Amino acid sequence: MIHEFLTFIQTNNLLTANDKVLVAVSGGPDSVALMHLFTKTNYYFEIAHVNFKLRDDESDTDAEFVRLLAAQYAIKLHIVEFNTTLHAKEQKISVEMAARQLRYNWFNQLCLENNLTKIAIAHNNSDSVETMLLNLARGTGLKGLLGIKIKNKNIIRPLVFATRDKIETYLKTNNIPFKTDSTNLQNIYHRNKIRNQITPLFETINPSFKKTMYNNAANLLQTYKALNQVIKKAKKKSLIVDNNHITINLSLLKKFKPVNYYLYEILFPYGFNPHQTNKILKAAETQSGKKFLAPKYVLITHNGNIIIQKRKNAAKKIHWYFPEEFNKITLNLVENKQTTIEKIILPIQQTNYKQNTNNNIAFIDNRKLRYPLIIRKWNSGDYFYPLGMQSKKKLSDFFIDSKLSIIDKKKVTILESDGKIVWIIGFRLDNRYKITQSTTDVCKIVIS
Fold first, then answer.
1. Residues 125/214, Cβ–Cβ less than 8 Å
2. Is residue 83 within 8 Å of 97, Cβ to Cβ?
């Protein structure tokens, strides 16, 4: 495996002889294998371990294991503890996002302080395949099917060539101990479901499924690079950029076929998702003044063109938008009042949604949700399909029917998915997201 490791580094130009590497070591099999492989090379490296204090004694045990590992191999160790939950609350982000932010900020700080040039992360081939399948299920474009990037600025992933099974075989063959994160065995997150249930099913059809997917990603990358050249040409021809906004000349963009694909590639960096693209294209051709919202940008159709500009006070309107891995967080949805939001994914058999009378609990058909979800204040012009109704209703009319005062209306927040209202929090669910006979997984969201 050491030969494959060195060949992969050299083929992809991940390191030079002068690079000094910071290897992230959690204590799990992948990171321990990565560290051990580096001990067999001539590259200078140090290791870093983050204790996020999220798994009680298990977190501390992992940290101690890495200390002993560093001492055994006489490698310089950097170790830090973070109150990840507190950081998430202060920044109003998910715990997963907080952990990522803390980890990479600290890694980059270590590189500056210790004259290290690269950060090595232990993502493997199996992680990359899981990412591809997850993105495929979410409905991303071609870019989402490329797997995990081997190199991204100063971050390298030298283990992407190896499957998880190959790594564990390497560890067992060399009698190298490692720690197992107990949460990896729980099918709470979609990634774990793909890892523990879906990928093994594909392997019954094709035993070399992971290798095949890895080759698919390599082929798709070449396709993406070729397409990217044409996309750059389309942008150059059809975009006018100034300090305040971006204008897309739709008549010029239509010279590139299919136009909806090129439009999506242009809009994606501004936070607009593929499900909005066709609606935007249709609106641009038929009406002026139609607005579409992304977390940080607003898109307006105007005389057959498309205008994109930053949202004013976007941070105030959107309290939080969170990824699929979200579990629990505390926000200030109402001024001077902390609100805890918890998401639980359950099989429908384990829910009592029919008996629910609590307006602060929503049972949602999980398969209908598109991430990231958004929690924001309601806007004038918002509408939804009230639970039990087939026709849409403006929120302003719903509030009148509910006899809400002006003060109460200002406090109302909504849960949004893919530009659609899922739930007027504390009041009513949208009929499009209700539990039906075909529902298998239920997303239970609790506000307290």
1. yes
2. no
Decide if 232 is inside a domain: no
Q: Does residue 299 sit within a domain? A: yes
- The helix-helix angle for 259-267 and 274-286 (nearest 10°) equals 110
The domain of 32 spans: 2-216
pLDDT per residue as tens digits for the range 129-178: 888 998 888 766 677 788 888 998 899 999 999 988 899 999 999 999 99
Find, among 284, 297, 293, the residue nearest to 249 by Cα. 284
Nearest partner of 147 among 166, 164, 123, judged by Cα:
123
Nearest to 210 by CA among 198, 225, 222, 224: 198
160: left (phi over 0), alpha (psi -120 to 50) or beta: alpha
Q: Specify the pairing of strand 239-241 against strand 245-248.
A: antiparallel
Does residue 263 sit in the same domain as residue 149?
no
Lowest mean pLDDT among 110-114, 305-309, 314-318, 387-391: 314-318
Report DSSP letters for 319-351, one per residue.
Answer: EEEE-TT--EEEEEEETTEEEEEEEEEEEGGG-
Q: Rounded to two decimals, what is the model's pTM? A: 0.60
The predicted-structure confidence for 394-427, as pLDDT tens digits, reads as follows 988 888 888 887 767 878 888 888 888 999 988 8
**Alpha carbon of 241 to those of 236, 245, 296: distances in Å?**
10, 6, 17
- pLDDT of 371 strictly over 70: yes
DSSP, collapsed to helix, strand or coil, labels residue 367 as helix
What's the first-to-final CA gap in the chain, in angstroms? Answer: 51
The answer to whether the Cα torsion of 316, 318, 320, 321 is positive or negative is: negative
